[in-house]
Every structure is written in structure tokens, then in C-alpha cells.
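dude i think i finally got it to work??
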Amino acid sequence: MPAPSPTPRKRRHRATAVIVLLLVSAIAGWFGWQHWLAAPAGSSPSIGSGGTTGQPGAGAGTPGTRSAGGPGGAAGPGGAARWGGGNRAMPVSAGAVDRRDLRVIQPAIGTILALNTAVVRARVEGELRAIHFTEGQQVRAGQLLAEIDPRAYEVQLAQAEGQLARDQAQLANAQIDLARYRDLAARDSIARQQVDTQEALVKQLGGTIRINQAAVDNARLLLSYTRVTAPISGQVGLRQVDLGNVVRASDPQGLITITQTQPISVIFSLPEAALPRLRAGMRGAERPTVEVWDRDGRTRLASGAVSSLDNAIDPATGTIRVKAQFDNRDGALYPNQFVNIRLHLDTLAGATVVPSNSVQRGATGSFVYRISDTGAVSVRPIEVLAVEGDWAGVRGDVSPGDRVVTDGADRLREGAQVEVIAPARGRPGAAPTTGAPPASTTGARPGTASSSGAAPSSGAAPASAGAPANDRPPWLDRLPPEQQERFMKMSPDERQTFIEQMRERRRQQQGG
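look at this
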């Protein structure tokens, strides 16, 4: 006879017990994992870890287990103890404090403006018959650019000259009659009224002559407008009208546009706090220099000087507009080009400078981490006076020759032990290059983990012990053996990427 099936109430109790058991197991596992991550190197193995003290590599290659102090005794790739748990030294890059002359640079954003811009338009109406320029070429003031059909204006000039000649002949005849009438009037042969009438006629014809002469001059001027010339020297833009089209003075785009780019100017805005120092520099023998850099700030395009200031500060932004001028003989600057500006306001002679990437900022202000001879870091408050390139001029409790942390300061605290690793070549203060030997190594205290992260009593040898000593960073012993072996086979670029990934994983776990 089959056994009776459990009642629905018993099934519900059984399911609830299973769920509670799973939750308790998950919570216990999570706390155990956190304890395993936070345990310092050289600690005793956890219960049930499968590791045995003194057995090389026992449990080192198994995820989730720890050995007593072998190379696998550090946390896995995502463990927080990998870079500084317990008494381990944290790898950082360092730079030296120096003393040098430092320029006070005021950065800004500017726009290139042509010194002069002229839109060349036809001043008379007619067919465009000839073009004497090439788009983009440099032209001189007065140079012939285009020709408009002149025949209609030549006819007008001939007509005006004919009228002038006719009236000049009439004036000459009237003047002869006036002389004759005056002679007869002197002998009382004619009335005085006839002489007066002839004098008025001569004056009338003289006015007509002046009108005709003005008409001739106007016709000649209109005829000269059929030859279009450059009003200024500069660079010709793109042609707006083709041959054969009828052009007019009312055309909005004109024929071409000429921009004067040699010299050329730039307009940028400065905060009003920089105005006193700028005005003091403009009163000197030499104007403050201005450097123009490209959009990315990597290439210097030109160097010039401040030419003028605006007459008022913009109250909405608290800035003042400044104009600088450049020779631009190589044509590197174009009108309406966006550029980065570096205005040289002053020079700090013999200033104390630190690498700019060593400056940290906190709630109390700026500071740096100074590295002592024993490898311990200390917080030194500073005041940043100026920044130029990779250097920052500071005032504070640092002296030339001191070493300061330039990379890896995200987890440092007062008194933390650090291990200086040489920075990557060509990148001042960048992340460490793992293939390079460390610049200095902190000394290990008795009874604690050494700078490499392995316990002194460990009898286990690294899995990649055959690698050259100068190619193996000391902190590598903190990783499991299989990761050590894989790391030693990487190229320098792959090693750099590996370290960045490990650091990013550490930051994510800290944030979690």
C-alpha cells in the first residue's frame, strides 16, 4: 500500500525551511568572502579552506581558498588586499620637487578674426566678361580682379563729352559778342540793356559748361567701375558669380570676399581678477605675450602680443574682452577659427614646483603626499600659485628634493607605506610600467609582510621563479601562481592594461 502524500501545510513548511537555509548560507558565504578579502598576508588559513601551513601552493590556485603564506596567500584579482591590505606597501609613482622659473599662464578660449574684411561688389550693372584672380590667392590693394562689359558706359561718356563741346562753342561765341557789345556801348552805339543781357547769357553758358563737365566726369567714373579692383590686400575667398552673368551693385553676396590675414587678430575673454596684472604688463616695455594653440591644446600655432583691451567689463560674465595680434606669415590662423589661448601674465623666479599630477584637492584645500626615506607618506598642505604644463608652482611644507606621489594616491592615508615604481616612459607621473624595476623599495619590518607581499616564513616558490629578477615587480608575489605566470608572459603594453584593469576592479569593489 503506497505511503500517504504529505499534506499541503507540511509542504509549505518544508519549502520555507529550504528558503531560510539558502538565505542563511548566502549571508554566511558573503561574510566569509569579505573576511577572506580583508585578511592580511601571512594570516592563518580559514577553516575549511583546504590549505595546510607549510605546504607549497596548497589551495593557492583554487578560487575562494587561501594558503598560510605562499604566493597565493593574497586575495584574488578582485581582492582589496591585493594593493594594500594589512601592512603591505602600496605601489605608486613619484616625482621630485624642484626649483625653477615658472610662467604665470592664464588660459582662455578665443576666436580668430581677420584684421579687415571687404566684400567686393560691382558698382555698375553689366555682364561679367573677365576674371583676373584665382580663388584663395593673396592679392594687393588696387589689383585688377574682374571686368564688366564697358560699352554702354563708353557711349554715355561720348555723349557727355559731345554736349560739353557744344556748350563750350556757344560760350565762346557769347563771349565774343559780349566784347563787341561793350565796345559799341562805350561809343553810345547800342543800349546798355543789350550789354547786360549778353553778360547774363555768358554766365548762363558758363554754368551749363560746368554741368556738362560734371556729366563727363560721372560717365568716366562709371566707366572706371567696369574694372573691379581689390580695395584691400588680403586673401581672396571663393567666387560668388561666374562669367557671363549680369552683376549689379545691389547683389548681397557680391563677387568675392577679401580677408586681411597678415597680420591677423584674436579675440578672447579674461576674468576681471586677471585685469590688474594684465594692465601692469601692458604698461611695461613689452606687451604680454599670447600663445595660440589648436583645439586639442597639443600644437602651438602662433605667438603674438596683446594689442588692446575693451573699455568695459561685461557685468553678466565678469570678464573683459582682449584683442591680440599675430603676424601669421605662415598662414596657420584662419578667420573664425576656434583656438586655445595661453596668456603669459608674469614669471615666478625661483619658484618651488611639483609635478602637476601630484596635487590633490580635498575639503581643506590642496595638498600633496610626501614620501619619507622609510617609505611612509605624509600629507603636506600647499597653495598652488600657478600651473604651466606638467609643473605647478606651490607654496607650502615641501622643499626641493622631496619626493611626492604622482599616481596611485586614491587609497593613501597619513602614514601609509608605499612602494615607488618607475612611471611609463614619455608620460610624466603616469601609471607604473610593470616591466621596469622599482625606483625604491620600502623596508619590511620584522614579523610583517615584506614589500613583495609574501610572508617571510613561506616556503612556497612562485610559479614563475625562473623569470629574471630585474623583470619581475616585487608586488607580483601577491597574486595567485597562475596569474603570476600569465603576467610574466605578457608584453609591456599588455602588462600596463592588466594593471589598469586591476585598479579599476578595485575601485568598483570599493564603491560596492
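The chain is about 25% helix and 30% strand.
im so relieved honestly
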